[in-house]
Write a structure and sequence with these properties.
The chain is mainly alpha-helical and 213 residues long. Helix content is 61%, strand content 0%. The chain folds into 2 domains: 94 residues, Endonuclease Iii, domain 2 (Orthogonal Bundle); 102 residues, Endonuclease III, domain 1 (Orthogonal Bundle), CATH 1.10.340. The protein has 12 helices and no strands. Helix 2 crosses helix 3 and helix 5 crosses helix 6. The longest helix has 19 residues.
């Protein structure tokens, strides 16, 4: 199947930017982005955000979390799935950040991926939402929507990231995750996507096929 060219991809991104203005994008402290991303794994955003806020209210940074009793961290993050594993991992990461990086998150994706349990998606989230450095975090929304539109034809998120970096102009990388996540939550849902309401359906392989049925 033909993959869309840069001009077509740019038109899609520009249309999504109108629907979901960039000024609404989140920016936060890099360490907090890392912790929030870990908490969000296999957990709904409605649970993740308030849990993260409660954790930061008690332990606002890496030094505070590094010295926190594990039982207290577990008690705060209990609402998220796999809370015991995440609590232990978060404290371990905090201790490494304090010991090896003077309490500040490294800006290097390679160094971030060297932290316990931190993979490419989590590291990319920190680069984008913490440092404002171009990267493409690929979660389920980005993987699903990229394939539906026809930007990529991949089976695994890791493959999707590599192909998107070739398919999408670098100047748009920092926006892709937020745009696709919001579009996936509001219109391009996993089951029964609302193609009739979609503003990019004429540029989307899936949307064009639905219109032809």
């Amino acid at each position: 199947m033909r993959r869309k060219n840069w001009k077509e991809t740019s038109q899609i991104v520009k249309r999504l930017r109108i629907l979901y203005p960039p000024d609404a994008f989140r920016r936060s402290d890099p360490f907090r982005v890392l912790v929030s991303t870990i908490l969000s794994q296999r957990t709904n955003d409605k649970i993740t955000y308030p849990t993260a806020e409660s954790l930061f209210a008690a332990f606002p940074d890496a030094p505070a979390l590094a010295g926190a009793p594990l039982s207290k961290i577990e008690g705060i993050v209990r609402p998220v799935n796999y809370y015991k594993t995440k609590a232990e991992r978060i404290r371990e990461i905090a201790r490494i950040v304090v010991k090896d990086f003077d309490g500040k998150m490294p800006r290097s994706r390679k160094k971030m991926c060297g932290l316990p349990g931190v993979g490419p998606k989590t590291a990319n989230c920190v680069l984008v939402f913490g440092f404002g450095i171009p990267a493409i975090p690929v979660d389920t929304h980005v993987h699903r929507i990229s394939n539906r539109i026809g930007l990529v034809h991949t089976k695994e998120p890791e493959q999707t990231e590599l192909v998107l970096k070739k398919a999408v102009p670098r100047k748009y990388w920092i926006e892709i995750n937020e745009l696709f996540v919001r579009h996936g939550q509001e219109i391009c849902k996993p089951i029964k996507p609302e193609c009739g309401k979609c503003q990019i359906r004429k540029m989307c392989d899936y949307g064009i096929n639905q219109n032809s049925i």
